[in-house]
Design a protein that fits this description.
85% of the residues lie in helices and 0% in strands. The protein is an all-alpha fold and 319 residues long.
């Protein structure tokens, strides 16, 4: 008996839902004409995409923001259009199935009205429960029949409303597509102009740097030449220092020989010829030509003082 009442409650809930569905269908059918008029009005108010002249005064940041907005709106329109196409497809396929369901529901209601569920020798409580279940079943079938009738009757207005909404969505989609293309073109031209300006500025800066590099390169070349000259002068200075060392050694050697002769003259007497030679060598030592560049060596010069010295030594031995 409890199960019977639970079945009755479930059937009553089904009937309530069916009646709510039927009410919703009646409301949609009643509002369809107004919706169609609104969609057509919105369709006529769709503006043409802006021209390049209209976008000439828009900043790059504003263009980028509008591109992002148009991209989002375009994606939403595409999703809405796909959903509308699915609804129209299902709506076109629904009448045949709804008519079959309506015929089945009417046949079930007639069969339920004709049959008797009471069984003799049952308790009064069980009979009441079965009656409640049968009544709920009939109510559910009646509500289902009403819902199917409302669905079939509202198919045409609902379909026309969906078609009007689809036409509006398609127009908005086309508008957003053209708008997005115009915005991207304008932004691309701006970026292209900016790139050209940057290129020209870079070329001008490069020319300026090249012009500034030329004096630097000339100065560097001059520094190289001066460095080469300095190297040559340093090399010549080293050669002159070496020649000065050789001349100094010659002077020291002559000075030693002169001192030796002076000591010998002090010991052995004087010689007029030798004195003349020594005085001549002293005069030679006083001249600056000893530090000039000469190709002769000390060994190659005439040894006049040495010859006079040897002759003086022989005279001393004879004495």
């Amino acid at each position: 008996m409890r199960d019977t009442y639970e079945q009755a409650i479930a059937l009553l809930e089904t009937a309530r839902n069916a009646r709510a569905r039927a009410q919703d269908l009646r409301k949609q059918a009643a509002q369809a004409p107004a919706g169609i008029r609104e969609y057509k009005r919105d369709l006529q108010h769709i503006e043409a995409p802006p021209s390049p002249q209209d976008l000439s005064g828009v900043s790059n940041g504003r263009l980028a923001s509008r591109i992002e907005t148009a991209t989002t709106r375009l994606a939403d329109s595409q999703a809405t259009l796909a959903d509308l196409r699915d609804q129209l497809t299902r709506l076109a396929q629904r009448p045949e199935a709804a008519r079959q369901e309506l015929a089945d529901a009417r046949a079930a209601l007639q069969s339920r009205n004709a049959e008797r569920s009471e069984v003799p020798d049952q308790s009064a409580l069980l009979v009441d429960a079965q009656r409640a279940r049968d009544s709920a079943r009939r109510e559910a079938l009646t509500a289902e029949i009403d819902t199917l009738q409302q669905e079939l009757g509202s198919l045409d207005p609902r379909q026309r409303e969906l078609e009007a909404r689809r036409a509006l969505t398609q127009a908005r989609l086309a508008h957003d597509t053209e708008l997005l293309a115009a915005l991207q073109l304008a932004l691309g031209e701006r970026q292209n102009d900016t790139a050209i300006e940057l290129r020209d500025a870079s070329q001008a800066k490069l020319s300026e740097l090249r012009t500034a590099v030329e004096p630097i390169a000339s100065t560097a070349q001059r520094n190289v030449e001066l460095a080469n000259r300095l190297t040559d002068i340093t090399r010549q200075g080293e050669a002159l220092a070496q020649r000065q060392v050789r001349q100094r050694r010659r002077v020291e050697d002559i000075q030693r020989r002169l001192n030796l002769v002076q000591r010998q003259l002090q010991i052995g007497g004087s010689s007029i010829a030798l004195g003349d030679v020594l005085r001549a060598q002293r005069r030679e030592l006083a001249k600056p030509k000893l530090f000039e560049t000469r190709g002769e060596t000390v060994a190659g010069e005439p040894e006049i003082a040495s010859a006079e010295l040897m002759r003086f030594q022989l005279q001393q031995q004879r004495v």
